[in-house]
Structures are given as C-alpha cells and as structure tokens.
Amino acid sequence: MSQSNPEWPEVPVVVPWYHWVWVYPAAWSLRLWLATLRINISGVDAVKKDETYLITLWHDRLFTSAVVAKRFIDRPITALISTSKDGGWLVAFFKLMGIKAVRGSSSKRGAAALMSLTRAVRTGDCAGVTPDGPKGPRRECKSGVVALAKLTQRPFLLMGISYRRAIRLKSWDAFAIPFPFSHVDVRLEVMPVPGESQSDEQVALSIQQKLNAISGD
Question: pTM of this prediction?
C-alpha cells in the first residue's frame, strides 16, 4: 500500500484563523507591489469580458495572474489550487483578491476537484488553471484542463506573461516574481473548445506549444 505524501494531503490544508492577523497585512503589501507594475496587455480585442473562459497559464506566472485577470474579465473567477500548505496560503491571498478556490490536483482529489470546478464554470464562473501545476514537470501541460474544456464546452483563454526583470525562486517551476515598478508584458489568446475527434493529449500539446510561444522564459 502506498503511503500518502504529507506535502500533498488528501484533505486540503487551510490557513488557521489566527494567522489572518498577518495574512491581511501581507496580502495588502503584495497588492501594493502589484500596483506598481507597468502592465502592457495585447490580444484584448479577441476577449469578451462577459464570456466564461478557462484561464490557462503556467504555474511560475501565478504572482501576477489575479491582478491581470481582473483587468479584462468581468465574471467571477474560481481557481484550482493544490491541497498543500503552500496552496492554503495561496487560497488566503486569492480570497483577498476576490478569487474563489477549488482544492485539488491531478494526484490528490483530482476527480472531486474537476467536478467542483465544472460546476463553478457551468454556473458562470471563469476557471483559473495552471496545467503544469501543482508540482510539474515545469511547463508540461497535463490533460486535466482538456477534460474540463470538454465537460464544460468553454473555450480556453491562454495568458502568456513575460517579466522584463524578475526574481527567480529555487522551486520546481523557477517561480518568478517581478521587481516593483518593472514592466510586465501580457499576451492573451483565445483557443476554441476542443472537438471530440481531438485526443486530450493532442490538445494538451497544442496548449503547451502556444503557452510557451507567448510566455516569457
């Protein structure tokens, strides 16, 4: 019998209420940091602000994802976030940014997370998904996002983000954090609902190639 990995528990880790004493100040500090960024967005003309999309981006670009998405999407957003402790902190931050969360991944609570996210999309929420998360391999698109598209019949909104100056963390995805007051280039591309004749693997490879083409290194 395989043993569960404590870093990726079946039951999602939740930030204890007493930590919110400093979660709020930290989140507001991050919001101020994000407000200093000079964000240039292209491809907006192809985006319908009231459309329900599957917002898809690489895991290493999560730092700016919430503030960018809020600029061109009018609908509520529900993000898929891992069950890990790091995921618990990300949920806390996203909550203060006005983004809801579904906890799970391809390896933990995958089916339950997929169904919860499907219900959110069918009720009008956009979904936020990192197809290489929560633990890689880096920039390798998994097929879960394709299954979500086929279940919901909603198009992808690929979000390519490029930082001109950024800090790189020593994590599996080389998570990037842009310097305050630096430039951030965002490229949006709408990708239609995949046809039934297309295999999940073919669509995932197409997403991977397109995201890599419009995302920074």
Answer: 0.87
